[in-house]
Amino acid sequence: MFDNSELAPRWAxxxxxxxxxxxxxxxxxxxxxxxxxxxxxxSANAWSDGTLTLTEMACNRPWHLSAxxxxxxxxxxxxxxxxxxxxxxxxxxxxxxxxxxxxxxNHEVDRFFVQGTLHRSEKLHLxxxxxxxxxxELLEAPVSGSLDLLPQVDQHSPAGILFKNLVETIISGMRxxxxxxxxxxxxxxxxxxxxxxxxxSMPHRYSRQLEKKIFAPAPWHIRRAIDxxxxxxSTPITMSMVAxxxxxxxxxxxxxxxxxxETTPAAYLRTLRLRAARQDLLDPSNRLEIxxxxxxxxxxxxxxxxxMYRSVYGETxxxxxxxxxxxxxxxxxxx
Length: 335
Prior knowledge:
- By secondary structure, the chain is an alpha+beta fold.
- The protein has 13 helices and 9 strands.
- The two termini are 18 Å apart.
- The model is unreliable at 1-7 and 326-335 (pLDDT under 50).
């Protein structure tokens, strides 16, 4: 048996298929190996609060994993300790050695892989909705489709150093059912910080738009209109009412939103309401039916709401509600 006592494994075995079957408790993946599996040994562990999941893995053969339709959407941060971690996206492959990090959205990456006759790595899996929602909030507009995140993290840039330090802090705080899993406020704050670092500091499709927003703040009438929308988000309001509150014409309001928010005032209000509906769906204490949540936030057609919700958050309202009861969060996996 491959000896890796540092992991204090919850799971261990000598068969690649049994590894895949066992790790379904974390998430389903398809896997294969290009090497002979004689003498294959592995050990693993995992902990989660439902939004962030930490997995540890040790093995003595290379293998490849790909997400299935049943795999949750995650940002996976690979942290090799011995051997090599890698991701393949189309014709491009990126690898990381110990001391380096790799990023990958598991449904955008074609495959994850590990190499080395002695391989040890840790992986942080962050619920993708944290990233998409953070980018959407920063852009103040819905985000759909791929972010096209670059997998490599610049180890020498200030942002890369900060990101690596934060990842290591979270890993050390979650490992062995650590203190973070018993400190929900600290866990929430660190999770939000991780999401913001990815959104603001890791190169992706919206990076240039975010940079423009930093250096071109919206004028006063746009900010006043947004304040009015937020204050009246649960009540029927028209764009004429919003323009009146901002003391401008509807045309000036439309032009301002298109220039500074790259959207229309109506679409911006719809985004605010969609975000409020999501908060209700993810709130374990909220017992309202989905149709009642739709009506509460001004969505009168359930099918259209579901399609819009999926396009922005990558899951249906029903899936969001089911995800409130994440199995790893409930079981608090321990070694």
